[in-house]
Design a protein that fits this description.
- It is globular and about 50 Å long.
- By secondary structure, it is α/β, with parallel strands linked by helices.
- It folds into two domains: about 30 residues; about 270 residues, Metallo-beta-lactamase, Chain A, CATH 3.60.15.
- Helix 6 crosses helix 9.
């Protein structure tokens, strides 16, 4: 009887030791964790957040500032965590609230010079980015913001200018490219480097052709400076994805000329024809147009 009691006491002591170890170790795990949330992805407003325990980086701010603050509260993320803002291009659904956000929170806005000019000239942007907070970046010129190492690259689109971002931190490479007229060789190389990728799948070609859009708008969307179709998005993935790619999110879907399940199905079918299987080679999700996603944890290795 006494032997059993001693064994139980020893076992309990071991449990306490393990628990103490985990409590000490847990903060280290959290500290090295990178998270991703999409707060909106589409013509109604685009906004994405990458964050660690200590700082966050927003890409585009085309949703309302009060809406963004509400979402942050809903996720338990303090506004003070957001330290940096990157902007892809100057269309209103990507920059509508960026000036107000900069003014209210004393934050720098990082974009190309032509994008900054475009923001100032955009009548949909009521609050402009203060000159003191306008930071100019250039394609293929890397820079560092705290924990984030950022490489901008050119993306063809009929805006004043457009760039995508390859962002590296904690051994993780996250890439975002949206409003894509066509995929260039350089963009293919960025896909090839990514562990996590957000890429546009804006429209289904047959839906667009048969839809109610005027002819000139259809031509614009399908042009080299327009948007990326489901099929062309899939082709870019099939030709450039490597074994390092772990998760892909399809972004900026058209409300009129696409559907989430259609986009997913098209991409899956094209990838399968190349011997790539979604769920086995990498995960695939479709970002919601007007609603936040859950929190995606990005890992340096599976």
């Amino acid at each position: 009887m006494y032997g059993n009691l001693i064994e139980k006491q020893n076992f309990s002591a071991k449990i306490m030791e393990v628990s103490a170890f985990l409590r000490n170790f847990a903060p280290k795990i959290i500290k090295t964790m990178l998270n991703f949330i999409s707060f909106g992805s589409g013509s109604s407003g685009n906004c994405y957040l990458l964050y660690t325990e200590s700082e966050g980086l927003i890409i585009d701010h085309g949703i309302g500032t009060r809406t963004l603050k509400k979402y942050l509260r809903d996720y338990g993320i303090p506004l003070s965590l957001v330290k940096y803002v990157l902007v892809t291009h100057d269309h209103a659904d990507h920059v509508k609230s960026v000036g107000k956000f900069s003014q209210e929170n004393d934050l720098d806005i990082h974009a190309t010079k032509r994008v900054h000019v475009g923001i100032n000239n955009n009548y949909c942007v009521r609050y402009k980015v203060p000159a003191a907070h306008a930071r100019c970046v250039e394609p293929n010129v890397p820079f560092t913001l705290g924990e984030f190492h950022v490489l901008p690259f050119s993306v063809p689109h009929d805006s004043a200018d457009n760039i995508g971002f390859l962002i590296e931190t904690q051994g993780i490479k996250f890439c975002l490219m949206t409003d894509v007229g066509h995929v260039t060789e350089e963009m293919g190389q960025m896909i090839g480097q990514a562990n996590y990728l957000v890429i546009e799948a804006n429209y289904d070609t047959e839906m667009l052709k048969a839809g109610t859009y005027p002819a000139h708008l259809k031509v614009r969307i399908m042009g080299l400076g327009g948007h990326l179709s489901n099929a062309d998005c899939a082709q870019a993935l099939a030709e450039n994805a490597t074994s390092e790619l772990r998760h892909v999110w399809l972004c900026h879907l058209s409300e009129e000329n696409n559907h989430p399940e259609l986009a997913r199905k098209t991409v899956e079918q094209v990838l399968r024809s190349y011997g790539l299987v979604v769920g086995a080679d990498f995960k695939l999700d479709v970002l919601k147009r007007t609603m936040p996603t859950g929190v995606f944890e990005l890992k340096s290795e599976d």
